[in-house]
TrEMBL record, chain A:
<protein>
    <recommendedName>
        <fullName>NADH-quinone oxidoreductase subunit K</fullName>
        <ecNumber>7.1.1.-</ecNumber>
    </recommendedName>
</protein>
<dbReference type="GO" id="GO:0030964">
    <property type="term" value="C:NADH dehydrogenase complex"/>
</dbReference>
<dbReference type="GO" id="GO:0005886">
    <property type="term" value="C:plasma membrane"/>
</dbReference>
<keyword id="KW-1278">Translocase</keyword>
<comment type="similarity">
    <text>Belongs to the complex I subunit 4L family.</text>
</comment>
<comment type="subunit">
    <text>NDH-1 is composed of 14 different subunits. Subunits NuoA, H, J, K, L, M, N constitute the membrane sector of the complex.</text>
</comment>
<dbReference type="GO" id="GO:0050136">
    <property type="term" value="F:NADH dehydrogenase (quinone) (non-electrogenic) activity"/>
</dbReference>
<keyword id="KW-1133">Transmembrane helix</keyword>
<comment type="function">
    <text>NDH-1 shuttles electrons from NADH, via FMN and iron-sulfur (Fe-S) centers, to quinones in the respiratory chain. The immediate electron acceptor for the enzyme in this species is believed to be a menaquinone. Couples the redox reaction to proton translocation (for every two electrons transferred, four hydrogen ions are translocated across the cytoplasmic membrane), and thus conserves the redox energy in a proton gradient.</text>
</comment>
From TrEMBL, chain B:
<dbReference type="GO" id="GO:0050136">
    <property type="term" value="F:NADH dehydrogenase (quinone) (non-electrogenic) activity"/>
</dbReference>
<dbReference type="GO" id="GO:0008137">
    <property type="term" value="F:NADH dehydrogenase (ubiquinone) activity"/>
</dbReference>
<dbReference type="InterPro" id="IPR038430">
    <property type="entry name" value="NDAH_ubi_oxred_su3_sf"/>
</dbReference>
<dbReference type="InterPro" id="IPR000440">
    <property type="entry name" value="NADH_UbQ/plastoQ_OxRdtase_su3"/>
</dbReference>
<dbReference type="GO" id="GO:0030964">
    <property type="term" value="C:NADH dehydrogenase complex"/>
</dbReference>
<feature type="transmembrane region" description="Helical">
    <location>
        <begin position="88"/>
        <end position="110"/>
    </location>
</feature>
<keyword id="KW-0472">Membrane</keyword>
<keyword id="KW-0560">Oxidoreductase</keyword>
<dbReference type="GO" id="GO:0048038">
    <property type="term" value="F:quinone binding"/>
</dbReference>
Length: 98, 119, 518
């Protein structure tokens, strides 16, 4: 049954979402976002199986590409700010407020 | 059975190449004594005690890793195309060439900006 | 394995404007790779401007000479219809103007990898280094902006969303001055943007599970016919909505906007405030109308609430701002709320749809020009540390530089929607469509929010003209030709659209008349 995979995907997505909200380290936050994207991929592939067409699997490829591009850009930005502040905590980045 | 002949031939070719290159190396290569060659094999890096907590990697690793990810993952589009390239015909070929050219542009940029240099 | 695969057909002519922009971006990367450093900017600026102008000409040619296609291009993946062509034209013009602003002064960091305040940075500044990658990045972002509102399936929309956003994340972190703020803006924008696009993607996955396709038209058919899986549909639609509303900065997803607008280099803020908003609204309307039109009884009340919240939050929080760029950001949030009123005003009847849609399109043009102009003025008011953002530094600007202060006051009045400015007709068109669509309470909230917003616009004007200038007040830099052209164009557009809006209104109306192809 595909239900299990969908439940797993929803769980992964939720874990990722909660991680984004509660974790402090920008790298970990970012990893949680990637977890969410992978949860989406799992859902796509499962639905592809369930719907009996290959669209979902093709979409998963595209999502992987986009995720890779996002990793590169995200790490570049996070490393830059880490080199400036010697800290990757999202709580420390608080110059912009109100 | 004849379906598997190409795979078998390929396996034989691959094994032959591997055995040949390893076998011929002692005879053709220069022999120079080097202490590092006698050390425990650790990916070419001198074995050093790891700092507590794993330590930090130099940024070079990250740049190389990022470049690897980008070029590696873009190539996944080649697989579906390779499976059906004969059925996709000229259109598929042209599109794939265009795709590779675009990736190549990024590669040229990295190369010219010395992103591939280790030091 | 013996089945034949139909090679897809791609209407290259229809996609030409986008292809020109992406092609120029790729050529730009090659220029970065192979041209010597001193030549790069000299090649990039004409290349960027010419490609944007060329894409604009192609868009016009397509709309005028070839007629509006009735079928989505590229196997139904990209819909080049009336609204899409209008939005393309708008984005291309706004991007052209923003590029003029980008090349105007030295807004960008000399070496992004150098730690702020380090010897390395000193040296880069001394050598006159510059990141000319800005131009290809802007072109990639603009290409994504063109694709986003034309995307006719959710995967293309997601890819376009990322192609548009990823370069912008980087560009946000490249300000020359106040680099800490800029880097922080980039991190915040990136993390929140990636978070929201994950929601968009999961929504896409659920809708794919529901409808068995990601094609908007097929989702629309499924909404009417597939039963028993409403959970997938509702959660999917809601998550899609979160992703889209984040991009337009609607409350309660507006938190990134002030931070990012403040920290980003001002020309990039101008591009984001105009181009991204236009693109995101185009996509929002398309997804909600083409894909989820059959569900409008369910999403309309939600958008109703979101629109009210957005208008109120934008207008009220703008009052408390002491920073000019943050104030403009909150004003942009409020304008997003006014535009959402237009989205809600769309209805079942074709005439109602057309009037609401044309109102949105006109509003986007009017607001886009005015906001680019306003940010252009912000780049010109400077003191020792760069642009003077704090409102107190703007006190008495009217006495030191009446012309500039007058122009800025004019833009603010246009934001407020005073008659004889473009903002008035924009608001009028949207609110009128909402009234005839039966959303009167929403219009009342909108008018009240406009009044609140007008209060803080007028407060800035009073500050500029009726208070004494500080002794060490900011200096007004003599604008470069590019910046002057931007301000001039923005003033011209704001006046013309305010005094004689009919041609653009007609154009928007005829674009909206054809509605969306499926």
């Amino acid at each position: 049954m595909t239900t299990h995979y969908l439940v797993l995907s929803a769980l992964l997505f939720a874990i990722g979402g909660v991680g984004v909200l509660v974790r402090r380290n920008a790298i970990v936050v970012f990893m949680c976002v990637e977890l969410m994207l992978n949860a989406c991929n799992l859902a796509f592939v499962t639905f592809a199986r369930q719907n009996g067409n290959l669209d979902g699997q093709v979409i998963a490829f595209f999502v992987m590409i986009v995720a890779a591009a996002e990793v590169v850009i995200g790490l570049a930005i996070i490393v830059t700010i880490f080199r400036t502040r010697r800290s990757a905590s999202v709580d420390d980045a608080s110059l912009l407020k109100y | 059975m004849e379906l598997y002949v190409p795979i078998l031939v390929l396996a034989v070719l691959a094994a032959g190449f591997a055995v040949f290159s390893v076998g011929i190396a002692p005879f053709t290569g220069p022999k120079r004594w080097n202490r590092a060659k006698l050390d425990a094999y650790e990916c070419g890096i001198e074995p050093t005690p790891q700092p507590v907590g794993g330590g930090r990697f130099p940024l070079k690793y990250m740049i190389t890793a990022m470049l690897f990810i980008v070029f590696d993952i873009e190539i996944i589009f080649l697989y579906p195309w390779a499976v059906a390239f004969d059925k996709l015909g000229v259109f598929g070929l042209v599109e794939m060439v265009l795709f590779i050219v675009t990736v190549l542009v990024a590669y040229a940029y990295v190369w010219r900006r010395r992103g591939l240099d280790w030091d | 394995m013996n089945g034949t695969i139909q090679a897809p057909t791609i209407e290259y002519a229809l996609l030409a404007p986008m292809l020109v922009v992406f092609g120029a971006a790729i050529v730009g990367v090659l220029v970065e790779a192979f041209a010597p450093r001193y030549l790069r900017s000299a090649i990039h600026v004409p290349l960027t401007l010419l490609s944007l102008a060329g894409a604009f000409a192609l868009t016009i040619w397509q709309a005028a000479a070839k007629g509006i296609p009735t079928k989505a291009a590229a196997m139904g993946a990209v819909a080049v219809d009336g609204p899409a062509l209008f939005i393309w034209g708008t984005i291309l013009v706004l991007a052209f103007v923003s590029v003029l602003l980008i090349k105007g002064e030295d807004h960008f960091v000399a070496a992004a990898s150098a730690v702020p305040g380090s010897a390395e940075e000193e040296q880069a500044l001394h050598e006159g280094a510059a990141h000319s990658e800005i131009y290809p990045l802007v072109l990639f972002a603009v290409g994504g902006m063109l694709l986003f509102p034309a995307a006719n399936d959710l995967l293309v929309a997601f890819v376009a969303l990322e192609v548009m956003s990823l370069p912008l994340y980087l560009l946000c972190g490249l300000a020359r001055r106040r680099r800490l703020l800029s880097q922080e803006a980039a991190v915040k924008y990136f993390l929140l943007g990636a978070f929201s696009s994950a929601f968009f993607l999961y929504g896409t996955a659920l809708l794919y599970g529901y409808a068995g396709s990601i094609d908007l038209a097929k989702i629309s058919t499924a909404v009417g016919s597939v039963g028993g899986q409403d959970t997938l549909l509702y959660i999917g639609a809601a998550m899609l909505g979160v992703g889209l509303l984040f991009k337009i900065g609607a409350a309660p997803f507006q938190a990134w906007k002030p931070d990012v607008y403040q920290g980003a280099p001002t020309p990039i803020t101008a591009l984001m405030a105009s181009g991204t908003l236009v693109a995101a609204f185009g996509a929002l309307v398309r997804v909600f109308w083409v894909g989820l039109g059959g569900l409008d009884w369910d999403w309309r009340p939600v958008l109703y609430g979101v629109a009210i919240l957005t208008m109120v939050v934008g207008a009220v929080l703008a009052i408390t701002q002491t920073d000019i760029k943050r104030m403009l950001a909150y004003s942009s949030i409020a304008h997003g709320g006014f535009l959402l009123v237009g989205v809600i005003a769309t209805g079942k009847a074709a005439a109602q749809n057309a009037s609401a849609l044309s109102g949105i399109l006109f509003y986007l043009v009017a607001y886009g020009f005015t906001t680019v102009g306003a940010f252009a003025v912000v780049t010109m008011v400077r003191d020792a540390g760069g642009e003077a953002w704090h409102l107190s530094r703007w006190a008495g600007l009217g006495k030191r530089s009446p012309l500039l202060a007058g122009i800025f006051a004019f833009f603010l009045l246009a934001f407020a929607g005073i008659p004889l400015t473009s903002g008035f007709f924009g608001k009028y068109a949207v609110f009128q469509a909402a009234v005839s669509g039966g959303a009167l309470p929403l219009v009342i909230v909108g008018v009240v929010a406009s009044a609140v917003a007008a209060f803080f616009y007028v407060r800035v004007i009073v500050l500029m003209f009726f208070s004494d200038p500080a002794a060490d007040g900011p200096s007004i830099v003599l604008p470069s030709r590019g910046t002057a052209a931007v301000v001039g164009l923005a003033v011209l557009a704001t006046v013309v659209l305010g005094v004689y809006p009919q041609p653009v209104l007609d154009l928007a109306h005829s674009a909206a008349q054809s509605l969306f192809v499926r």
